[in-house]
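Our collaborator T.R. sent over the components below with a one-line note: 'Predict the complex.' Nothing else. No constraints on interfaces, no templates requested, no preferences about which chain binds where. So this is a plain run: every listed entity goes in together, and whatever single assembly comes back becomes the starting point for the next discussion.
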Amino acid sequence: MAKTRLYTPGPTPVPEQVMLAMAKPMEHHRTKDYRDMLARTTEGLQYVLQTKNDVLTFTSSGTGAMEGAIVCCASEGKKALVARGGKFGERWGQVCQAYGIPYIAIDVEWGKAVEPAIIEEQLKNNPDIGIVIVVHSETSTATASDIEAIGAIVAKTDALFLVDAISSAGAMPIKTDEWKIDVVVTGSQKALMLPPGLAFASVSEKAWKVIESNNPKAYYFDYRAYRKSLKKNDAPYTPALTLVRGLDVALSMIKEKGIENVWAQCAKLARASRAAFEAMGLKIYSSSPADAVTAVWLPEGIDEAELRKILRNEYGVHLAGGQAELKGKIIRMTHMGYVDEVDTMGALAAIEAVLLRLGHKFEIGAGLAAAQKILVESR
Amino acid sequence: MAKTRLYTPGPTPVPEQVMLAMAKPMEHHRTKDYRDMLARTTEGLQYVLQTKNDVLTFTSSGTGAMEGAIVCCASEGKKALVARGGKFGERWGQVCQAYGIPYIAIDVEWGKAVEPAIIEEQLKNNPDIGIVIVVHSETSTATASDIEAIGAIVAKTDALFLVDAISSAGAMPIKTDEWKIDVVVTGSQKALMLPPGLAFASVSEKAWKVIESNNPKAYYFDYRAYRKSLKKNDAPYTPALTLVRGLDVALSMIKEKGIENVWAQCAKLARASRAAFEAMGLKIYSSSPADAVTAVWLPEGIDEAELRKILRNEYGVHLAGGQAELKGKIIRMTHMGYVDEVDTMGALAAIEAVLLRLGHKFEIGAGLAAAQKILVESR
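Returned assembly:
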């Protein structure tokens, strides 16, 4: 009878209003209704990303839209600068490699933020850098980088600034225009409270100038086709209509709450959770923790698989483990999307109980009291 | 964006498996499929009520089935003995009154259990008592009475023992046959994890003998019609088919978990919640608290309506207030049905936070720690 409660950093819980909207009878997408809906969702995404730029909607995961951004923005004879501080930073290097795009990698120690100064230095030393790729919230390490600072640096050059905001947009402040980000990519299954299946990209005029003059090795992810269709509020290829319908509802929920309030709630839940974990004697993994997701080191002697299995089977609490080199060493818990204080306190109670059961020593209720203190004080 | 989380003592949360089963296309009820389903649900209800007796299914609230029990079991020239220790005990007196059934009321102080000795004394002094009506878990006061002890007393007489188990069956141990209960009435929207709309009654052979020889002023709630139909696994009048379909799923969930485990979970959540409230400096209302629901006195200066409104609007936590003379004085929180430790700790965290905000003084996290202690120790 265990409920399914997702505290994984994507997919995240989907509100029932969204689920019900998606369960309505199937419609066709070459209709005025669909175009009106896409016009609304595009505007809603502009609000979430705080931009006047075009926002394209892809039927794909975030990886697909990010691949499109890289391929479309990479000009012949130019290099990419890729900040790699986790699994996703590494992935964007692999995309460059797959397409034969020459790139310089900045290897950041996992769990640390990308240093804006290093980006600045690389751009100065390599005037042939055409695109700079940085992950805002590196989901694998729950680490945030200072996109605003890096944006200001890249904007002074001819290079384009591509940001993987897959697990940050809608969770942490991101101000696309103010921070001068050329391409922001995000996905549906994170802070946007949808099932997986859609990805989005905002594209600046500076980026369009480059994209329009390129001849990318791309078809499905050729951004130009999406821009052309967007002018008619349409999709170039058959869109995942039910997901767009869900998006329409999810965006209206975000708008009603106000994006600043959404960001503030996510930050508060993250702060409370970090305080709880520390009070339980666990160490936060990142030195620059993202508010979208928290990663914590497991204490000596606690088996990650066993901990997560008990939480899943007996409490219905689904956490993520570590990826790649962090497998078995950390657990990750989301704060973004459709999770609130009640969900968070419930999950922290379950984590506390299971850690105690597995023999980790701390005062019963210490984690909960620490989290409660943050929640009560920040009301 | 506040979620709807019912912690009210009915309706309670409905599992999505149940909701999805009820959302399937409509079928007809005069079919083999329906009869097979009713055979399964009847067997499942016998398991929940721990009885070999017939269990009848009514499309009504619990009140309807209870009215039917009283009217069908009341014989000409005999009296009813009604234990009144709350709103529901009073209601069964009102039913007697409406039908002109003479009755003796035992008025129990609200929040206290019915004394078996008083029942015994009344039965001794009034040999013309035909039915004894006791509420197992008085929802209005969150108070439990000792049905086993009273059952043993009534069984020694010719009187029938009618138990309102509307908010106890499936939440607290009830052993119909072992405890010699003639009629047990319950409803769908409590521990059975269904929406409102169905009521159930188990009927002993001793009761059938009386019912069959009576000529009750009843048609829709004439138990004889339901018994006749039940022999063919059928319903006398159009049944609420989707609710029976949901019942089929809910009962299979209870069976899979095991009724003893369901009872144990409810008791554990109740114990943890009572400990939390006491640690927050709140007093438990009942001196014989039911495990299905907890009622607590509100501290001086805390406005019940305001407390519940903030919990509802900001946390999505729906509690019940007091009824009748307890309006504005107590809050009530359920432990039955589809609520678990994560739900309970989440709700207690919200209640703690709001009590602190409204100025009630206690150490932050004290309630949570007290509940966590119970949960950790009883694993």
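Summary for T.R.: The first strand of chain A starts at residue 5 and ends at 6.
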